[in-house]
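SAMPLE LOG
Freezer: B-3
Tube label: C17
Construct: single chain, 310 aa
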Amino acid sequence: MGLKAKGYLLGAAAAATYGLNPLFALPLYEDGMTADSVLFFRYLIALPVLAVMIKLRGRSFAVSRVQVGALAILGILVALSSLTLFLSYNYMDVGIASTMLFVYPIMVAVIMVSAFHERIGKMTIACIAVALAGIGLLYKSPGGETLSFTGTMLVMASALSYAVYIVAVNKTSLAKVATLTVTFYMLLFGVCLFAVRLACAGEIQIPTVSNWYLWGALLGLAIFPTVVSFACTTSAIQYIGSTNTAILGALEPVTAVIIGVCIFGESLSGRDIIGLLMIISAVTVVIAGPRMGMRLNSIRRLFPRINKQK
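STRUCTURE (predicted):
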């Protein structure tokens, strides 16, 4: 498997697993746990899992002082992105929040163009537009009411933090550090933020005794949307760049729709199907973009222009 193909596969896996957040988080909310408590245990449980993975793969925990500073900033950014997203669930429907979060690929593209002078082709811009349109079709307002301003600002903050994280992984000295090591320290600094917030609040919630099985939800939250998603995202960025990895994030709401249909028995309308097809088509074009361009050029050469003689 080529490096590009591996990067696209990892990007798709990262998006799909990150889309599992609501599946594990909502039962914990219903049990009375706050966003800070859920995220504290999410990050805390993920740390030993990552440590074992690093040891088994023979990776090193060693990082330079400069890299420690970058990892600290990255960890706080990711923690803030998780916190603001989970807090937004208190102000709006989870599906709406997950849909709105997908503005982050546009933020990534803007950052890459303005700060790093990256050229983004017309096809990439078109794919972002088609994916956004598809996600717009998946949007379902519960009753046509106005969206919460607080919830909207929280989601925008989450998207911006995540966008900066995606760019920073590729444009700092961390690009040379092993993926699992970056993810480990990122979560280590992140869990510190939640520990401080919980200490200031003076309380921490755990699953109730009667609902002991919700520890399984915390474990699932720590492994899939955290260890797997963040590790795959970091690795994908190194293979295919920040912009392409961000566009593959369009698969996150697709995951949410599939979970809603298969697990919660939600119906799938014709509008939903069109939205899904638009998203999948946009992602497919991004993945096949370079080869598609080469094939189109080959076809054009078969039909040369005929210069009209006067």
